[in-house]
Amino acid sequence: MAFELPELPFAPNALEPYMSEQTISFHYGKHHRTYVENLNKLIKGTDFEKMSLEEIVQKSQGKSEYAAIFNNAAQAFNHAFFWKCLCLEGKLPSGDMKEKIDRYFGSYDNFCEEFQNAAVSQFGSGWAWLVEDKSGKLSVIKTSNADTPIAHGLKPIVCVDVWEHAYYLDYQNRRADFVNTFINHLMKF
Ligand code: MN
């Protein structure tokens, strides 16, 4: 079964001025689409064809012979997840999630500072995440390239893409500005 590019959960210009329609058109319309199309080509005629995206990520993880399948499946998952973490002027955590953030980070502001530091300090391409482990503990992690929490038994809560393609058209080399804007104007819990 071939995977389809999931629909964007917002209009392509809905995040302006913080994330431009041009960025979305390349990031979603070209980059994300290419991961999905490459994955479909790579799994055609293999056992992976019968699996969900999550299963493909988990079964291909750490196996050099499946590196291309892992990279494209993980990026297909990561991008579909990232679009759900965005809305204009963002949405703060509430209820249980707000309580858990206070418990594990001390405050929402402390969480934001740790998340910003992870995103800015990720060397080269990658992602910053708020994740929950199997015991319910929250933490901030960063992953390189296509790597993804679901390959490590962690549940993603929110993430930011810090590959240059995520911000270069709008922020050029200013990753810290992009991440700060994401946290204050786009991050949706
Ligand atoms: Mn991306």
Short description:
With 189 residues, this protein is mostly helical. Helices cover 47% and strands 11% of the residues. Strands 2-1-3 form a three-stranded antiparallel beta sheet, with helices on both faces.
Task: Summarize the helices and strands and which ones pair or pack.
Blueprint: H1 21-43, H2 53-60, H3 67-83, H4 95-105, H5 108-121, E1 126-132, E2 138-144, E3 155-161, H6 168-171, H7 175-186
Antiparallel strand pairs: 1-2, 1-3
The structure holds manganese (II) ion (MN).
Q: Report the mean per-residue pLDDT as an integer.
A: 97
CATH-assigned homologous superfamily of the largest domain? Iron/manganese superoxide dismutase, C-terminal domain
* Shape category: globular
Task: Please give the share of residues in helix.
Answer: 40-55%
Level-2 CATH architecture of the largest domain: 3-Layer(bab) Sandwich
Spatial ordering of strands, largest sheet = 2-1-3
> Structural class of the secondary structure composition?
mainly alpha
Give the number of domains.
Answer: 2
Distance between the termini: 31 Å
CATH topology of the largest domain: minor pseudopilin epsh fold
Main sheet record: 3 strands, antiparallel
Question: What proportion strand?
Answer: 5-15%
Secondary-structure element string: HHHHHEEEHH
Which CATH class of the largest domain? Alpha Beta
Strand element count: 3
The total count of helices amounts to: 7
Q: List ligands, each type once.
A: manganese (II) ion
